[in-house]
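Researcher: I'm preparing a figure for a lab meeting and need a structural model of a single chain. I don't have an experimental structure, so a prediction will have to do for now. The sequence is pasted below. Please return the structure as tokens so I can convert it later.
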Amino acid sequence: MTALRFTVAAHLRNRLALVLAITFVPTWILVVRACAYGATLHFHEHAAGGIIAASNNRVTQVNSALNAVTVITGFMMFMEAFKSGPLDRRLVLAGFPRRYLMAGRVFALVVVAAVLAVYTAGLLELSWHQDQFGALVLAIFAANTAYGGIGLLLATLLRGELEGFFVIIMLSLMDAALQNPGMNPLANQWGLRYVPMYTASQSAYAASFTHVWPGSYLAGGLVWFIGCAAGGLLIFALRTHSYRRSSTHVGPRQTPANRRRDPVRLRVR
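Model: Understood. Here is the structure written out token by token.
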């Protein structure tokens, strides 16, 4: 619970992400609703098993909402993991179990992804009635966890906040564009099914415009979440391995003289 409180407190201090979540997602949906043309769009919906017809305006709302909320989720996870790195290392050095820190971070990611999924699906439901509201929540949740996992992994690989922010934005922009039926109605290119938002987008379109349950497509985003989160946590565990050994070392009392003779133990990466 202590690790979870640290993680949640770090998310609550990220006021920019909170403001973006509260204002940017509904604003973006309203702008698309007001500006996108409403002609009927025919596109291949793989999760529904065939070609469906839907308003381009509504399809673009779903696509834009996924784009906005995944950027925010990835940004929140990246910033929390990036900024709390020095504190985590001090906690491990003080003897705090690393497994609790990692479990708290993953649990907080799931909670944030779920809250933002319900919030975004509710905004789309206010725009028009969704055929399968529950499936839409799960589809957005899967997309959020995928980009949350990517944010965790980037926090361990990149050295600057700006780098992580732009990588997440550009990745989500390209991903959302490829999943937009207005630009890619067939969505049958080789390798497309392996990008982070493919299965979540297919599930979201099926939930919004059909009564066909997306089934296994809902779990596709979780594969990205598990892979990226596991990679980020593994790098964190490797980098703090020496700290854990230092915290369990039994030796002479640390004095200024001892610290000068043993600089390696006190080195902070």
